[in-house]
From TrEMBL:
Ranges of residues in domain Starch synthase catalytic: 2-237
Organism superkingdom: Bacteria
Enzyme type, top EC level: transferase
The protein's annotated pathway: Glycan biosynthesis; glycogen biosynthesis
E.C. number(s) listed in UniProt: 2.4.1.21
Annotated keywords: Glycogen biosynthesis, Glycosyltransferase, Transferase
Alphabetical GO biological process terms: glycogen biosynthetic process
Similarity annotation: Belongs to the glycosyltransferase 1 family. Bacterial/plant glycogen synthase subfamily.
Phylogenetic placement of the source organism: Bacteria, Bacillati, Bacillota, Clostridia, Eubacteriales
Residues that, per the record, bind ADP-alpha-D-glucose: K15
Protein name: Glycogen synthase
Location of the Glycosyl transferase family domain: 290-449
Protein role: Synthesizes alpha-1,4-glucan chains using ADP-glucose.
CDD domains, sorted: GT5_Glycogen_synthase_DULL1-like
């Protein structure tokens, strides 16, 4: 089985969010199961030079984009035994930012076409499956069915499309059909790419891929309802027979407190007592009172509405009157950045606001904190809560998407569960749940039991990779 995994970002080359983690870890897990999985991403100028210097030139050719032919250099590199391909075109990818350009519609139209053309230059690697991810490669399944189906090389290739976040859809003016994609007017219809007066790349993936997946079972159900459906719930209901929810895992070679070099002191589920040393050291670094009995609450997130920050903001004043400390890390909307910075300026010994994307500090927070807050409005899967579990920081989450599927509420009678959760998007429910967690924190035996449960929860990629493998097999049988 050969799988070409198409993504707009992949760790360790370029990563802005969870998709970058998945594009590293899932293909790796598939390879371990004997699948010849390979990854292809754009060659952004911001990929570190140390990688760029090691890339090999495989081929150069042109890619038709509307009436023009654009250059494509196909580069290749193996990293940790994984073959990676890079689509090189300086006009599109030699920029300081990777997303949010005025011509993203053109850049990712080009990328999808370039991926399809690249297959002619991969030697004997002709994929059985092209696995596309999010809107950036959503148009590819449509192009594969339209422009390549008569070509023998492509006629047997099946496509899988994974939705990591339905909110970001890649919606562009309808002129793009003719001017960039070389697709005829017929595609501007409800059962093809039309989304109101425009063209949706996300719809391209949903309509034209042979199977559609999303990153948790709960989210797969949620997106078929108007609240979570982002205007596509009707379409998703009509495609429910080919829609699957497969929860993400995390890579325990990357995220393991026993060997993680980014944290102050290593520990595991048999040496939970060592964890507290991380807290004392971080308290000191943040100029908080150094005291192992003060619960430390961590928030590591992009600062966007999706993450449920409005609930936290609504209760922040109240939270800061409790005997706790809060450390926040992340950047995003200025609105949230300002609020958290304001509180940190008033209560510097209670809340530390760190407006950066800093993977080292992130790990230190997971290792040091007692509680991890993630009350998302919606969460396709979520990775923060999975890392928190492994590092013994107890997640408090809202029961949505992957948060619901991975966090089992603590049951004080049976001692089972690995976190705390609440149902409604309500700041009162969040506050009640935090209060319950803080009460349990004072009962050290029960708390330590909970920490142990959290740390031994298994969210490795193995099970999920097996589900993807079954899906690929069903498509190619
Ligand atoms: C997106 C989602 C997040 C998910 C990630 C990887 O970033 O918002 O919930 O974990 O993709 O699938």
């Amino acid at each position: 089985m050969k799988v070409l995994f198409v993504a707009s970002e992949a760790y360790p080359f370029i990563k802005t969010g969870g998709l970058g983690d998945v594009a590293y870890a899932l293909p790796k897990a598939l390879r371990k199961m004997g699948i010849d999985a390979r990854v292809i991403i754009p060659k952004y100028s911001t990929i570190p030079l140390s990688f760029k210097n090691c890339m090999e030139n495989l081929a150069s050719f042109t890619v038709p984009v509307g009436w023009r032919n654009q250059y494509c250099g196909l580069k290749y590199l193996t990293y940790e035994d994984m073959p990676y391909y890079f689509v090189d075109n300086e006009y599109y990818f030699e920029r300081p930012e990777i997303y949010g350009c005025y011509d993203d519609g053109e850049r990712y139209s080009y990328f999808s076409k370039a991926v399809l053309e690249s297959i002619k230059h991969m030697g004997d690697f002709v994929p059985d499956i092209i696995h596309c991810n999010d809107w950036h490669s959503g148009i590819l399944p449509a192009l594969l069915k339209d422009s390549y189906s008569d070509d023998e090389m492509y006629s047997e290739i099946k496509s899988v499309f994974t939705i990591h976040n339905l909110k970001y859809q890649g919606v562009f003016p309808k002129e793009i059909l003719d001017e960039l994609l070389n697709l005829d007017e017929g595609y501007f219809s409800d059962d093809a790419l039309k989304f109101y007066d425009a063209i949706s790349f996300m719809k391209g993936g949903i309509v034209f891929a042979d199977a559609v997946t999303t990153v948790s079972e709960t989210y797969a159900g949620e997106i078929q309802t108007p609240f979570y459906g982002e205007g596509l719930d009707g379409l998703l209901r009509s495609k429910s027979e080919k829609l699957y929810g497969i929860v993400n895992g995390i890579d325990y070679e990357l995220y393991n407190p026993k060997v993680d070099k980014k944290i102050f002191y290593n520990f595991d589920s048999d040496s939970i007592k060592q964890k507290v040393k991380n807290k004392l050291k971080l308290q000191n670094q943040l100029s908080f009172t150094v005291n192992e009995n003060i619960p430390l609450v961590g928030i590591v997130t992009r600062l966007v509405k999706q993450k449920g920050l409005d609930l936290i903001v609504a209760k922040l004043q109240e939270l800061l009157s409790l005997p706790i400390q809060i450390v926040l890390l992340g950047n995003g909307d200025g609105y949230y950045e300002d609020i958290f910075q304001y509180y940190a300026s008033i209560y510097p010994s209670r809340i530390s606001t760190n407006i950066v994307f800093d993977e080292v500090l992130a790990q230190k927070i997971y290792a040091a904190s007692d509680i991890f807050l993630m009350p998302s409005l919606f969460e396709p899967c979520g990775i923060g809560q999975l890392i928190a579990l492994k590092y013994g920081s107890i997640p408090i989450v809202r029961e949505t998407g992957g948060l619901k599927d991975t966090i089992i509420p603590y049951n004080k009678y049976t001692g089972t569960g690995n976190g705390f959760s609440f149902e409604n998007y309500s700041s009162d429910e969040l506050m009640d749940t935090i209060t319950s967690a803080l009460n349990l924190y004072n009962d050290k035996d029960s708390w330590n039991k909970l920490v142990k449960n959290a740390m031994i929860s298994n969210n490795s990629w193995e099970n999920s990779a097996k589900n993807y493998m079954d899906l690929y097999s069903n498509l190619t049988d």
